Each structure stands twice: as structure tokens, then as C-alpha cells.
């Protein structure tokens, strides 16, 4: 597998150059690859809210650079002004999406840099924040590189696999998590096949995962979400693997809406169900899944599809972006530290050391 371990760079879904944050606009894919340049924390908040940058790890790294943009916006000011602008950036960025813990993990690390730089002058403080954001990007990429390696243990030769939403390089800056594991299995010539759930309402599976697998030459079949049970029953799926937005201390896992249903279906058919996510997605302060805040999104995402009305415009809608899969359905959690097994309340804590 590729050995690049530097911080983010052009070609990654999020990268920082010349005091601007560049992101691949994930709303434009697969039709067009558009790079958006963001220069203020407000730009970053807007991009996160409308899912131009999305996926737990990508929003964590974008959030960290968004905080840095706050500090850079006060360049030329005194240290108090830089601190105030950075703090304001942290508060608006942490309010942009509530479920993925990586965003809060990244913002907390940026705040820690502010605390560690209590004696810094303006230039040193700004440099410290820049270095911390680069470290967050580096750690994200490196943890994904390692978990993609660890995940090979669960993917056998010729495996039929199924995934949901998008947890590839777009969602995680470079290697990806669940989709990264599958891409690497293909590169190792394991002869796998991937069933890709389209992932209504916003079609991250159809638009993004299918695009990423196609670019890599990974054999895949796109299915509607409701086809998953059928492909399991006919014996086409040996394992299900998805990413995660937050993993509670007991292993309950929030991920894209529909993941819970897949895990129950996998259990019913005796198919192992894996989560792949770095340690930064594990929230040990959150005891179980009932405490994870689930984002609810705009009703029009459900009343329309690809910009066309598909329901009466006044239809009442319930549109949670995520659901929580109880730990009992999860066969293993793949992190950069290996494949963790039940009871997760012990293995997650122990793996952090
Ligand atoms: O609403 P999204 O598209 O940001 O949801 C993303 C997911 O649910 C992914 O599966 C998760 O963030 C893992 S990405 C490495």
C-alpha cells in the first residue's frame, strides 16, 4: 500500500495551502470534480453544513483548519485579538454538525494549542495553531493507513461484501476507513466484490462510494437500500463493513441512517458486521448510544431526489442523518490498533492504553 504519511496535500479531499482551505466539493460528484477554496471559519461552517465536505474524519480536519483560518483572520492584531478570533471560530465550527465526534476532537486539540501557548506572542501562537492543525491532518491520515492494514484480517479471498454511505478517501482525507479496507483488499488481489447501498436521502453510496470504487477498479454492484436483505438471503454477502461517526464507550455506534437496519439484517443471516473507524471516533465520555446526539436534517432532502420533487411538497418528514447500532450486533470494531472484539466496554478502553 502507498507509504505517504505526510500531512494533507493536493489530491486529498481536504488540504491547506496559502492561507486557504481547499476541499473537493462532494456535492458535485460524480458529475464534476470541483475544488472549493475557503478562507474564513464561516466558509468552513457553510461547507460542512451543506455536506460539501462530509464524513467524520474529513469534517474533523476541515474544522481544525477552519479554526486556524479564524486565527489568520486576526493576523496583524495583538495576541488577545488572535485568541478571541480563534475561540469564536471554535464555537461556530463545533456547532456546525452534532454527531461526528471527530469534529469536537479536532476543535478540542486546537483549544489545547491555545492553552499551551499561554505565553506566546502573536506570530508564535499562529504558528502553533498551524502546526496543530497539520498534526490533526497527519494523525487522521496515519490512523486510517493503519486501520486499513488491520482490517485485512476480516476480508477473506473472494469475499462478497456490503457497505453503506461513504467512508472512502473523500470522507477520511486519504485512505478511508471501511471503503479504504475494501480498496486495499482489492489491491491485494483478494478478488472481492462490493455491494454498495445507494444511501438515501443524499446518495453518498451511489454518488461517492461507487465513484471511488470505480476509479480503483474494485468490482461493485450498486443496490437500492431496500435490496440489502435480498442480496444477503441469496448468499452474496460474506461480511458487512461500514464507517462510524461516533462510537460510545460500550461499542454502540452512530453511523449513517440505515446502518442499524443492515446490522440487524446481517445478524439474522449470520453475516459478520464490522465497523471501521479510528480511535478519534471513539468517545469514551459517552457511556452508550442513547447519549449520542443525532442530527436531523432538512425535510426537503427526503421530499426530493437529485433536485427533483418526489413527494408532495408539504409531506411531513422525519429525516435523522444517523442511527445507532447497538454493540450486540457488531462483530468487531477495526481501529488503527487492531480488530477489537466484545465486550467493547473493555476492549475500547484497553486499546487506548
Ligand atoms: O452525513 P455524512 O455523509 O457526513 O455521513 C457520513 C457517514 O455516515 C460515514 O459513514 C462516516 O462519517 C464514516 S466516514 C470515514
Looking at the structure, the CATH topology of the largest domain is Rossmann fold
Q: Can you tell me the number of structural domains?
A: 2
Shape: globular
Major β-sheet strand ordering: 6-5-4-7-10-15-16
- In this structure, how is the largest beta sheet organized? 7 strands, mixed
List cofactors, ions and other ligands. Answer: 5-S-methyl-1-O-phosphono-5-thio-D-ribulose
In total, the number of strands is: 16
Rounded Rg = 20 Å
Mean pLDDT: 96
- Note poorly predicted spans: 1-5
Task: State the end-to-end CA separation.
Answer: 27 Å
- DSSP helix count? 12
Name the CATH homologous superfamily of the largest domain.
Answer: Translation initiation factor eif-2b, domain 2
The level 1 CATH classification of the largest domain is Alpha Beta
Which percent range describes the beta-strand content?
15-25%
Order of helices and strands: EEEHHHHHEHHEHEHEEEHEEHEEEEEH
- Please give the CATH architecture of the largest domain: 3-Layer(aba) Sandwich
Judged by helices, strands and strand pairing, the structural class is alpha/beta
Helix amount: 40-55%
Question: What features would you describe in this structure?
Answer:
With 353 residues, this protein is α/β, with parallel strands linked by helices. Helices cover 41% and strands 16% of the residues. It has twelve helices and 16 strands. It has a seven-stranded mixed beta sheet with strand order 6-5-4-7-10-15-16, sandwiched between helices. It has a four-stranded mixed beta sheet with strand order 11-8-9-14, covered by helices on one side. Strand 12 and strand 13 form a beta hairpin.
Amino acid at each position: 500500500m502507498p507509504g505517504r504519511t505526510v500531512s494533507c496535500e493536493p489530491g486529498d479531499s481536504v488540504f491547506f495551502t496559502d492561507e486557504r482551505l481547499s476541499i473537493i466539493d462532494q456535492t458535485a460528484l460524480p458529475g464534476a470534480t470541483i475544488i472549493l477554496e475557503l478562507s474564513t471559519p464561516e466558509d468552513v461552517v457553510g461547507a460542512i453544513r451543506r455536506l460539501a465536505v462530509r464524513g467524520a474524519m474529513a469534517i474533523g480536519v476541515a474544522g481544525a483548519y477552519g479554526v486556524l483560518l479564524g486565527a489568520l483572520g486576526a493576523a496583524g492584531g495583538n495576541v488577545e485579538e488572535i485568541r478571541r478570533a480563534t475561540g469564536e471560530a471554535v464555537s461556530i465550527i463545533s456547532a456546525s454538525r452534532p454527531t461526528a465526534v471527530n469534529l469536537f476532537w479536532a476543535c478540542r486539540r486546537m483549544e489545547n494549542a491555545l492553552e499551551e501557548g499561554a505565553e506566546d506572542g502573536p506570530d508564535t501562537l499562529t504558528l502553533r495553531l498551524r502546526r496543530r492543525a497539520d498534526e490533526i491532518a497527519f494523525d487522521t491520515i496515519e490512523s486510517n493507513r493503519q486501520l486499513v492494514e488491520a482490517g485485512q484480517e476480516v476480508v477473506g479471498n473472494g469475499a462478497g461484501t456490503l457497505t453503506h454511505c461513504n467512508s472512502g478517501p473523500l470522507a477520511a482525507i486519504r485512505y478511508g476507513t471501511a471503503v479504504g479496507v475494501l480498496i486495499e483488499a482489492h489491491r491485494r488481489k483478494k478478488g472481492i466484490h462490493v455491494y454498495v447501498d445507494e444511501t438515501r436521502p443524499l446518495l453518498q453510496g451511489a454518488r461517492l462510494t461507487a465513484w471511488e470504487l470505480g476509479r480503483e477498479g474494485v468490482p461493485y454492484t450498486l443496490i437500492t437500500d431496500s435490496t440489502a436483505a435480498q442480496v444477503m438471503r441469496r448468499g452474496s454477502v460474506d461480511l458487512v463493513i461500514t464507517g462510524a461517526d461516533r462510537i460510545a464507550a460500550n461499542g454502540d455506534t452512530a453511523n449513517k441512517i440505515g446502518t442499524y437496519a443492515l446490522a440487524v439484517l446481517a445478524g439474522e443471516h449470520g453475516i459478520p458486521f464490522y465497523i471501521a473507524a479510528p480511535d478519534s471516533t471513539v468517545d469514551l465520555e459517552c457511556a452508550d448510544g442513547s447519549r449520542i446526539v443525532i442530527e436531523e436534517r432538512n425535510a426537503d432532502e427526503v421530499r426530493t431526489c437529485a433536485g427533483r420533487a418526489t413527494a408532495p411538497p408539504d409531506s411531513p418528514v422525519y429525516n435523522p442523518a444517523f442511527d445507532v447500532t447497538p454493540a450486540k450486533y457488531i462483530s468487531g470494531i477495526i481501529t488503527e490498533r487492531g480488530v477489537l472484539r466484545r465486550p467493547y466496554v473493555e476492549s475500547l478502553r484497553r486499546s487506548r492504553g
